[in-house]
């Protein structure tokens, strides 16, 4: 009887509770079968499991529906399958930097929630499906560095949400469509398509002047008719004439094009040079009421451009701009703009005058992680645990892109919760990257000026002034602890309770006393999954090890957060820590090995910055 009930329950769960997951699992399994996987990245894709949300490289929402498939740089061969169109809630499809061949399935046009389609650096052939024009939420479309042929579908011009369109280095032909909005406002690249033709600039037809006249009733009738026709023509022509006049008077935007052949991983963006007057008007002459924040590089103002879009304008401090040549500043700005990733704050433009240097970014509606954790109004709910996990993964992906996909690589040097911003959907966006190098005009690739924030600075960076990717890893680890605890990385207020002012030391002390519940942000009110908190703490401790060589790379952190390799890495670290304790005759204190990050006193951490 028990067996009958068990079978009944399993059948009900299968038929009713996981119907959509099963269909999505079948779709992803069809992709698995169609791909050759020499590195075994798809080993966890078990077709006997109803729910694909347990598979590596697959992300789901709270309803167990697939929202992201991330298989970039996996050395996959084979072909895409039409079944991919059966993932109704998919937002990110990332299959870049593989060796996938064959056509792009027309069924991808069914993915109406798709935000990003990244198929670049493969061997895809055939046309670009015109069905992609149905993807009205699409922001990133990158099909560059394939062997696609045929014309660019005119349907793409109907996607008004596009932010990046890269079709470079294919075999496309015909004329570039110009109707619609993307040709005017979207960063586009179609280099490396020798048979692709830019349409000629249209020439307005000559204005016909009336010639000849006749007398009598016919003439009068003709004059009236002519007057009516002329009036109607003027009525319909007036908007076109006004638009032409406005475009003629409007200052031309300046764009900086980056040669894609130098680094196919870097995607072209649109970088506008704003006038100082535009930004003064947008920010109400840099009014104090529009200040969004202050930092080591200057103040950030909220602004509204003439087209109605909201921006954040970073006005660099005057002392930061002295001695900076215009060409050098422009070159560094271009380098920052080349880093295009959904988890990086996109540089929209800049302004450069003899006395001013300003950077223009999209406005982030939900502010920074730090403000959401510690400065939110009472009417705003706290960040829930699911969002905090998503922030941890998004920030890791953004930093990994800076380290591994930018040439030259970009070291942030000030990773903290205040520099992780949140868009409308609470997606993590890493901000302020590249600014340290931008301001160090006299430095080489290694700087001796320590930049950063107390509590986030890696010990080796503080002692030597030399930064590396592992410096960012340390700061990221402390940021994870901010996410978990809701507390500041350095807080003198903790002295009132005889606690450590450094967040890392405070966390380690509580772990040694096995007070995990005391660690977690009280704003969560116990609504978190304890094993997930423990895993995030493990990642944080691995990232904040004293020796930079022992810290993981950010790409490894991404994999650990996705569920791949954390247990092994943590077990290995525990064994090494136990060996160190035995070697130094220090008895092990708990299941959470604790090593001191440094012996520096807090006042010594506030050295030259």
Q: What are the key terms here?
A:
single chain; 609 residues; alpha/beta; Leucine-rich repeat, LRR (right-handed beta-alpha superhelix); Phosphorylase Kinase, domain 1; Transferase(Phosphotransferase), domain 1; seven-stranded mixed sheet; 17 helices; 33% helix; 14% strand; disordered C terminus
Task: Report on this structure.
The chain is of the alpha/beta class and 609 residues long. It folds into three domains: 2-197, Leucine-rich repeat, LRR (right-handed beta-alpha superhelix); 272-362, 2-Layer Sandwich (Phosphorylase Kinase, domain 1), CATH 3.30.200; 402-407 and 432-606, Transferase(Phosphotransferase), domain 1, CATH 1.10.510. The relative contact order is 0.05. Strands 1-4-6-8-10-12-14 form a seven-stranded mixed beta sheet. A seven-stranded mixed beta sheet has the order 2-3-5-7-9-11-13, with no helix packed on it. The protein has helices at residues 2-17, 19-34, 182-185, 216-249, 276-282, 318-321, 326-337, 369-374, 385-404, 435-439, 459-464, 469-485, 503-512, 516-519, 530-543, 554-561, 566-583; strands at residues 35-36, 58-60, 66-70, 77-79, 92-94, 99-102, 116-118, 123-126, 140-142, 147-150, 164-166, 171-175, 188-189, 195-197, 272-273, 291-295, 298-304, 310-316, 349-352, 357-362, 420-422, 428-430. It starts with a helix and ends in a 26-residue tail after the last helix. Helix content is 33%, strand content 14%. It is globular, with a radius of gyration of 28 Å. Strand 21 (420-422) and strand 22 (428-430) form a beta hairpin. It has 17 helices and 22 strands.
